[in-house]
Design brief:
- The chain is mainly α.
- It has one domain: Fumarate Reductase Cytochrome B subunit (Up-down Bundle), CATH 1.20.950.
- Helix 1 runs antiparallel to helix 2 and helix 2 crosses helix 5.
- The chain starts with 20 loop residues before the first strand and ends with a strand.
- The relative contact order is 0.15.
Length: 189
């Protein structure tokens, strides 16, 4: 198995020991992931919308996004966009394989997870920007901006739920705890 291609059952030389792991998610990727989870949880469910700490948390997400985008070009192998952003044809092929029950495993993001990650990053950016715009005199009280901010935030909540569900399903399918992998940075080899 090569690390940049999906693992397959056929053609593998020697199976790895069940306890063998490999580093996949570096600290920057994990800090980004869990920082965004914490910030979105705070802003969606705990902090009062529009108040100081809600805004600071939104700015923290914006900083995390800038870090992650830069890291997507200069970071470790599995953090780089070039490792997981794929063409529509590759994404389509992956979804067809998935629908037919083919056991396709990726060490890094699979093509569907990569789409989800990019969409969530775009939504996070749009939400942070619309929130920032609401603090400007030019957009103060603008109902359209406020509505867009709310719709974007709710979209993040729905897609994050789908993302978590997909991680659980993939964990069961591949007999590997993907949530734990995002904590430790390691996946089975």
């Amino acid at each position: 198995m090569t690390a940049d291609r999906p693992a397959s059952r056929a053609g593998a030389s020697a199976p790895a020991a069940p306890s063998a792991t490999v580093a996949v998610w570096d600290p920057v990727v994990r800090i980004f992931h869990w920082g965004v989870v914490a910030a979105c949880t705070l802003n969606l469910f705990i902090l009062s919308p529009g108040k100081t700490w809600h805004r600071y948390t939104g700015y923290a997400v914006l900083c995390l996004l800038v870090l992650r985008v830069v890291w997507g070009f200069i970071g470790s192998r599995y953090a780089r966009f070039s490792d997981f952003v794929r063409s529509p044809l590759v994404i389509r092929r992956y979804i067809v394989d998935l629908r037919h029950g083919r056991d396709v495993r990726h060490l890094g993001h699979n093509p569907a997870a990569a789409v989800m990650m990019v969409v969530l990053m775009i939504l996070l950016l749009a939400t942070a920007m619309s929130g920032w715009m609401m603090t400007l005199d030019a957009f103060w009280g603008n109902a359209l901006i406020e509505e867009a901010h709310e719709v974007l935030a709710n979209s993040i909540m729905v897609l994050a739920g789908l993302h978590a569900l997909a991680a659980i399903v993939e964990s069961v399918r591949h007999r590997e705890n993907l949530v734990l992998a995002m904590v430790t940075g390691r996946k089975k080899a």
